[in-house]
Amino acid sequence: MNKKAFIFDLDGVIVDTAKYHFLAWQKIAAELGIEFTPEHNEELKGVSRVRSLDLILELGRMTASQQDKDRWLKQKNEDYLSYLVHMDQSEILPGVLHILQFLKEHHQPIALGSASKNARPILEKTGIIHYFDAIVDGNDVTNAKPDPEVFLQAARQIGATNQNAIVFEDSVAGIQAANIAGMISIGIGEAGILKEAQYNFPDFVHIDTSFIEYIIKK
Fold it and tell me: What are the residues facing 113 on neighbouring strands?
C-alpha cells in the first residue's frame, strides 16, 4: 500500500474541547459584562487565544490595557486547564479511534497539527498519544491558521511531501491553511461552513475505511 501522511487538528476533530473553551471564555466575558453565546464561540474556532480575546472585547466594544489582557488570558487558560483535569478516553469523538487504528495497522504516518498549547496533555489524558508520530502544536509555531505553518511543520517531521499530506480539520481557517499548503483537506463538520474543503464528512463515524484506502491510493 502507498504511504500518505495524515495530519489531524485536535479541538473539534479528535476531542470536543470547544465546550471547555466556551465555558472559560464565557466566564471572562461575563466578568466584563459582555454577552457571549455559543454562536459567538463558533467564530473563535481555529483562532489564537490572543485574537479570541480581542474578538470578545470588540463584541463588547471595549478596549483594554495590555496588562489587563495578559491577566485575562492567563485566567482563561487556568480555567480551561481546570476543565481538562477530568478528561479521559470517553472524550474522544465517535469514530476517531477506529480511523487512528486503521491508519496505524496500515503503517500510515500520523501527525497532530493544532493551535492548542495543551495538545500533549490532552492526548495523554485521552490515552492516544502513542498513535502520533509527530506533534506540532501552539508551542511550536508562530503563525496562526490560515497560515499553513503548523501543517508544513507536521508534514516535514513525518517526512511527507505536501502533496501526500491529508488534513482533517473542523475550522474554516484550518481548511484554508491545508489548501494553501497544497494538501488534501477533509472537513469535519457542516459542509455549508467548510465548503472550501475538498471532502466533507459530518464526523468520523461517516468516514468508511474504504474512503481512507481510496485516499491512500490516490
Answer: 136
Of 84, 106, 127, the domain-final residue: 84
Same-domain check for residues 198 and 124: yes
Give pTM, 2 decimals: 0.86
Decide: 151 and 183 in contact? Cβ < 8 Å: yes
For 81-125, the pLDDT digits (tens) are: 999 988 999 999 999 999 999 999 999 999 999 988 889 999 999
43 and 54 together in one domain = yes
Side by side, the strands of the sheet bearing 199-201 are 134-136, 110-113, 5-8, 165-169, 184-188, 199-201
Q: Quick one: which H or E segment has residue 81?
A: helix 66-84
Residue 4 is which amino acid?
K
**What confidence tens digit (pLDDT) does each residue in 127-154 have?**
999 999 999 999 999 998 999 999 999 9
188 pLDDT above the threshold of 90: yes
Active site residues: 9, 11
Quick one: 11 and 25 in the same domain? no
Q: Is the peptide bond before 202 cis (omega within 30 degrees of 0)?
A: no
Report how far Cα 203 is from the mean position of its chain's Cα atoms. 14
- 9 and 31 housed in the same domain: no
Could you tell me if 101 and 208 lie in one domain?
yes
